[in-house]
TrEMBL record:
SUPFAM superfamilies: NAD(P)-linked oxidoreductase (SSF51430)
Transmembrane segments: none
Limits of the NADP-dependent oxidoreductase domain: 15-314
Assigned keywords, A-Z: NADP, Oxidoreductase
CDD domains tied to this protein: Aldo_ket_red_shaker-like
Domain of life: Bacteria
Family: Belongs to the shaker potassium channel beta subunit family.
PANTHER family in UniProt: HYPERKINETIC, ISOFORM M
NAD as UniProt keyword: no
Organism: Actinomadura rubrobrunea
UniProt-recorded name of the protein: Aldo/keto reductase
A Pfam family it matches: Aldo_ket_red
Amino acid sequence: MQFRHLGRSGLKVSEISYGNWLTHGSQVEEDAARACVHAALDEGITTFDTADVYAGTRAEEVLGRALKGQRREGLEIFTKVYWPTGPGQNDRGLSRKHIFESIHGSLRRLQTDYVDLYQAHRFDYETPLEETLRAFDDLVRQGKVLYVGVSEWRADEIARALEIADEMGFDRIVSNQPQYSMLWRVIESEVVPLCEKEGVGQIVWSPIAQGVLTGKYLPGQPPPPGSRATDDKGGADFVKRFLTDDVLTRVQELKPIAADLGLTMAQLAVAWVLQNPNVSSAIVGASRPEQVRENARASGVKLDADVLKRIDDVLGPVVERDPAKTVSPRTRP
């Protein structure tokens, strides 16, 4: 396993992170979830990403139990705040009240005294940005949070947060967590250039496009039973945008490229996002330990310019690049 700095910070993270959005506490039983976490640890993955809202807070609980007994200093545990975690009007958003109550709940569920990275899960248009950033900074000063990041923020929102932090002496954002894959490249035109300039790293989710880039979805055929496309807990909403015959036909044309490199399709997809120097880590999820082991082996793979061009030649017409088509504030992960 290779490691990279998280943005311009001193924190090093594993190139492959393990995430539990749709699995822990939801799709798979706890024994399977624990086996996946231990497979990640065996492969040298030290970075684990979750959120308070995943599986209605259960994902944090499962991850906390799965990591219990591990050397805390050797782990990087990330979580997030924003989405509703209760029925009240203040059980959501990025107000000071919700941030403070959410971090205490996350720490309890994760069975830890601090998180390495606390991320604003979306931009909150109803709360002054200064209030949010001051609350995050106070948590850093209290030692409950070591670094602060965001997830699916637009370039102008990240820029404004950095400006306020510099003006008020707050800890700066060190990371953004966007969707990014061979098929979904909307961060490349605006977010990445800003973040490269400002020292903000990307922790990318869905590098395999919710499984589409494994090649398991075939044009003209229904999705395989048990796949993300048949999941009723949120996965289907994200994968369906890729389930057109044009996209699926072109994805099949990636198979000989992966074969020539001795890689699986999934490994090729994960390795591709890691070629971007602004990417600090790629998040992979899994319902079986062998999936973790397969994806982890994309770490350290170098793709030369000819390979990257072959990929672009195959996928070019179906790649989404429009920066306006980011994840809606009303959706997740």
